[in-house]
From TrEMBL:
It is found in: Endomembrane system; Membrane. One of its GO terms (molecular function) is methyltransferase activity. One of its GO terms (cellular component) is endomembrane system. Keywords: Glycoprotein, Membrane, Methyltransferase, Signal-anchor, Transferase, Transmembrane, Transmembrane helix. This is Methyltransferase. The chain crosses the membrane at residues 17-37. Its main location: membrane. Its EC number is 2.1.1.-.
Length: 600
């Protein structure tokens, strides 16, 4: 009878998620192996190493997770760990409190900088110890306008920064009307509107073929990100990038609109993207001096631009003949020639705005044929993974052995990525990972966790792996920022090869985004290697800062991690539920320190 009960337990797919003890699990599996032969679908899957993985706080094997996802047994739900009454919270103070970004608003460190010549004051300077204050809500904050309406209008009170309305009023960046900001699709270089500009680009160079050949774009100095916002209609995903500067809250506007964006600057350090990542990089009057400091800013673009990829530059030196503009143009001609970039198109719109399109080489032959070896080729040891706090280089990155272009979108999402190892086991692991996430998202995440996905637009995967979670959500009206933590194996090139976007990050520090900018934060076994490096409480505070009121956190992890996180989330007045003993779902409310009227 006991053996039959054990067999029924496995047939009902209640393994390994509902077992309280790994010792009991090992015992049950051993009994089944010895007595039941192949009656259970698990027996042909588990090896000794699989059993070891089950007993450790690591992700379940894809086949096991898929089997669990297909179970017809309802997921057990409870209210999660109890409240931690020892945690006391305080609101952030000062002029930047509402929009506080710890690593960009560390004014004490910024004042001590010896130079600001290379935008050092716009770079990261993280406080130590980490700040545990909670940014207050803007007065009158509301649940954001839903997508796709948000592309064109947002609540004024959610981002109450009217400076750009006046500063850019002749360029139609943004307008204020009643309780809303409106975004008419204008821009410094978009005299006839951004939609016409996008069509003009493809007409100038048909090989661009938006949404098929060109899928992943970086927009440097993006303004309010209308270029990236309108390209979404073309099946193009754009990482809109700008610093936190006098163009008040431009990235905050972008994210409130539901458009992918991040805060960064081309200063003294590499951008937090892998080599050979972007299909196209765009700069429309982005105010970067590309030839400065020996051409280091443009050499950085060359590093992250895919071989055969395009740099689209729309700026006055391209189409004006005054002395200053011509001086910049001549410097650009010399620099791009030394980098073996070639001009593939140059054109002028009827509005008088011009652009030039450069293409990066796919072969190293030009590098060897240069009359002068300046800039020099990078040494192989200089080409490293995880461009995190790495100084800008003054050399040309060597081209990869495989400079092929990815398959057309959307085919590139599903097939073997170019940067993935050619080892058979690695390729099998990639496809198993894709199957695992497809099953888990469709059968568990969408159905059994109580998340209102219709309210979700901006998503962050805090430990993205191969980007399988984002790929499984590709048909949803949302986008995913894929994070590859710096302490794990580098897989960010694979993510870009698939036609997705992401960045490196160290979760022991604050992320470069404004408060209240994401609707859902997803974490799959992120914390297992972190406790020795930083406090779980600090990561939970950062998650609270990033998440919008009404947004969700979805954590899949070990019981030990969940028992640490749950009480912290509850102390922040979140609602917390636990599903299948490994999926913690937290929903953030509107509570902030001092809001006595809002109950737990």
């Amino acid at each position: 009878m006991a053996l039959a009960a054990v067999q029924n337990l496995f047939k009902e797919r209640k393994y390994p998620f509902i077992l309280a003890s790994s010792i009991l699990l090992l015992l049950f599996v051993t009994i089944l192996i010895l007595t039941a032969g192949s009656q259970s679908p698990l027996l042909s899957f588990y090896s000794a190493s699989d059993l070891q993985r089950i007993s450790s706080p690591s992700p379940p094997p894809p086949a096991v997770a898929a089997a669990a996802a297909n179970s017809s047994v309802p997921a057990p739900i409870d209210k999660g760990p109890p409240l931690d009454l020892s945690l006391k919270w305080k609101a952030c103070k000062g002029a930047t409190a509402v929009d506080f970004i710890p690593c960009l608003d560390n004014f004490k460190a910024i004042k001590q900088l010896k130079s600001r010549r290379h935008m050092e004051h716009r770079e990261r300077h993280c406080p130590n110890p980490s700040s545990r204050c909670l940014p207050p809500l803007p007065s009158g904050y509301k649940v954001p306008v839903p997508w796709p309406k948000s592309r064109d209008m947002i609540w004024y009170n959610n981002v109450p920064h009217p400076k750009l309305v006046e500063y850019k009023k002749e360029q139609n960046w943004v307008e204020k009307s009643g309780d809303y900001f409106h975004f008419p699709g204008g821009g410094t270089q978009f005299k006839d509107g951004v939609a016409n500009y996008i069509e003009f680009v493809e007409k100038t160079l048909p090989a661009i073929e938006w949404g098929k050949h060109i899928r992943v774009i970086l927009d440097v100095g993006c303004g309010v990100a209308s270029f990236g916002g309108y390209l979404l209609d073309k099946d193009v995903i754009t990482m809109s990038l700008a610093p936190k500067d006098e163009h008040e809250a431009q990235i905050q506007f972008a994210l409130e609109r539901g458009i992918p964006a991040t805060l960064s600057v081309i200063g003294t350090q590499m951008l937090t993207f892998p080599d050979n990542a972007y299909d196209l990089i765009h700069c429309a009057r982005c105010r970067v001096h590309w030839d400065a400091d020996g051409g280091k800013p443009l050499l950085e673009l060359n590093r992250i631009l895919r071989p055969g990829g395009f740099f689209l530059w729309s700026a006055t030196p391209v189409y004006r003949n005054d002395e200053r503009d011509q001086s910049v143009w001549n410097a650009m001609v010399a620099l791009t020639k030394s980098m073996c970039w070639k001009v593939v198109a140059k054109a002028m719109e009827s509005s008088g705005i011009g652009l030039v399109i450069y293409q990066k080489p796919v072969s190293s032959s030009c590098y060897q044929e240069r009359e002068q070896t300046s800039p020099p080729l990078c040494e192989k040891q200089d080409q490293r993974h995880h461009s995190w706090y790495v100084p800008l280089g003054g050399c040309l990155n060597r081209l990869p052995d495989n400079s092929s272009w990815p398959a057309p979108w959307p085919k590139r999402l599903r097939i073997k990525p170019l940067s993935l190892s050619n080892e058979v086991e690695t390729e099998q692991m990639f496809y198993e990972d894709s199957k695992h996430w497809s099953a888990l998202v469709s059968d568990v995440y969408m159905e059994g966790l109580g998340i209102n996905w219709s309210s979700v637009r901006n998503v962050m995967d805090m430990n993205a792996g191969y980007g399988g979670f984002a790929a499984a959500l590709i048909d949803m009206p949302l986008w995913v920022m894929n994070i590859v933590p710096v302490h794990v194996q580098d897989s960010l090139s694979v993510i870009f090869d698939r036609g997705l976007i992401g960045t490196y990050h160290d979760w022991c520090e604050s992320f470069n985004t404004y408060p209240r900018t994401y609707d859902l934060l997803h974490s799959s076994f992120l914390f297992k290697d972190l406790p020795e490096r930083c406090e779980v409480v600090d990561i939970a505070v950062e998650m609270d800062r990033i998440l919008r009121p009404g947004g969700y956190v979805l954590v899949q992890d070990s019981t030990e991690v969940i028992n640490k996180l749950g009480p912290v989330f509850r102390s922040l007045h979140w609602s917390v539920t636990l599903h299948q003993e490994q999926f913690l779902v937290g929903k953030k409310g509107f509570w902030r320190p001092g809001d006595a009227s809002i109950s737990t």
